[in-house]
Specification:
The chain is α/β, with parallel strands linked by helices. Helix content is 43%, strand content 17%. It is built from 11 helices and 8 strands. An 8-stranded mixed β-sheet has the order 1-2-4-3-5-6-7-8, sandwiched between helices. Strand 5, helix 5 and strand 6 form a beta-alpha-beta unit. Helix 5 crosses helix 8 and helix 6 packs across helix 7. The longest helix is centred in the middle third of the chain and has 20 residues. It starts with 13 loop residues before the first strand and ends with a helix.
């Protein structure tokens, strides 16, 4: 007997490009629950997933936002491994063109950014750059969540981020992953080029790309083996010194992009409070 395939977690989304998906609520005028959100919701939430995140894992964050903000559109931007290894930035920005069109089609343009890991940070900087080039304006971000991001380049931590969880496959692929990173370093560092993590880290604190009025919150933990908490706090302090309003949420006992799983109540409470503290 044939097994029934599991439902597609992204079935309610329209795929606009290889990496861009859009959800539009059937009733965009549903107000948020008075017991949950006390201020007007974002018109569009932009979720930028971590590298190679599976739809079933992304769906948990989609559901959380739909619960808090049932009338908000959700723009999902995924970051496949190929974006990190060989797809040029020019082509990645081409893939993001439908996202820019979707943002422009939003009459309110009240954006809430929720990014994950270095992959999400990389894609946000590409989106902000492409949006500025096309429109001449910065992304209209009102608030931003940075979950497990950003780090600094690190061969060991980067290798952990790419390896599968299967203990039999990890040793087999470890050499290939480190070889890939070495080749990437070889094509960047001798020529003075920034790698994608350095570019993303700098771009997030570039006032030419990101509005200083947008409040931001860093969500991280000391137990994260893929992104250093010291590097996250260093970036937060730099942002604060450059004029951004910064919040920090240090979770205990949670791994990489796993803070919501360890303490869901606190996590979604942070999501709510950061939005409520945005600029009007």
């Amino acid at each position: 007997m044939d097994s029934i395939p599991p439902p597609d977690p992204l079935s309610s989304f329209t795929r606009l490009s290889p990496s861009v998906y859009l959800y539009e609520p059937l009733n965009p005028h549903i107000p948020p629950s008075a017991a949950v959100i006390t201020t007007p919701p974002p018109s569009t939430i932009i979720l930028l997933s971590w590298m190679s995140a599976s739809p079933i894992h992304i769906a948990k964050y989609i559901k959380g936002h739909q619960t808090l903000f049932p009338s908000s559109r959700i723009l999902l931007l995924r970051t496949p491994l190929s974006y990190i290894t060989h797809v040029p930035n020019r082509l990645q920005k081409d893939h993001l063109s439908p996202a820019i069109t979707a943002i422009q089609a939003d009459p309110a343009k009240i954006l809430y950014i929720h990014l994950f890991s270095n992959g999400g940070a990389h894609t946000l900087v590409n989106l902000a750059t492409a949006y500025l080039q096309k429109t001449g304006s910065k992304l209209p971000i009102r608030a931003m969540l940075l979950d497990s991001s950003p780090d600094r380049p690190d061969l060991i931590r980067g290798g952990r981020a790419l390896l599968p969880t299967n203990p039999l496959l990890r040793p087999l692929l470890l050499f290939l992953v480190y070889l890939l990173f070495f080749l990437t370093w070889l094509t960047h560092r001798p020529f003075g080029r920034k790698n994608i993590i350095d570019r993303a880290r700098a771009g997030l604190n570039d006032a030419a790309l990101v509005r200083r009025e947008a409040v931001r919150c860093y969500i991280y933990s000391k137990e994260d083996e893929m992104v250093s908490w010291e590097n996250v706090e260093e970036h937060a302090a730099e942002a604060e010194g450059r004029g951004w309003r910064v919040r920090r949420e240090l979770f205990v006992g949670s791994g990489h992009v796993a803070h919501a799983r360890v303490d869901s109540g606190r996590y979604w409470g942070v999501v709510q409070r950061v939005w409520e503290s945005r600029d009007s």
